[in-house]
């Protein structure tokens, strides 16, 4: 295995620092995107409406069953 000079090691470290900086910035952007609830609502509007309809139907059904049992 060939030995590397101090300058080569410094260059490699600097390149890795830059790559890490780019990766952190990309990750920060992705986290911001995923935690933006307004954007998530906009992108998944249909799924949210369907989920709300299912939840409403389930709650309505439970309320009807409770009402029938009380009679």
Properties at a glance:
rod-shaped; 87% helix; 71 residues; 2 domains; mainly alpha
Protein described:
This protein is mainly α and 71 residues long. It has helices spanning 6-34, 37-43, 45-70. The longest helix has 29 residues, at 6-34. It is rod-shaped and about 90 Å long. The model has no long low-confidence stretch (mean pLDDT 94).
List the helices and strands and how they pair.
Layout: H1 6-34, H2 37-43, H3 45-70
List low-confidence stretches.
none
How is the main sheet built?
none
- Secondary structure: number of strands: 0
SSE pattern: HHH
- The Rg value, from CA coordinates, equals 28 Å
- Helix percentage range: over 70%
Structural class based on helices, strands and sheet pairing:
mainly alpha
**Proportion of residues in extended strands:** under 5%
Mean pLDDT over all positions? 94
How many domain modules? Answer: 2
Overall morphology = rod-shaped
Termini, distance in Å? 87 Å
Number of helices, counting only DSSP H or I runs of 4 residues or more: 3
In short:
By secondary structure, this protein is mostly helical.
């Amino acid at each position: 295995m060939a030995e590397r000079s101090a300058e080569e090691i410094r260059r490699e470290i600097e390149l890795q620092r830059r790559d890490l900086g780019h990766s952190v910035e990309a990750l920060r952007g992705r986290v911001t995107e995923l935690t933006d609830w307004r954007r998530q609502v906009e992108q998944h509007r249909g799924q949210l409406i369907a989920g709300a309809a299912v939840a409403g139907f389930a709650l309505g059904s439970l309320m009807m069953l409770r009402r029938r049992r009380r009679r």
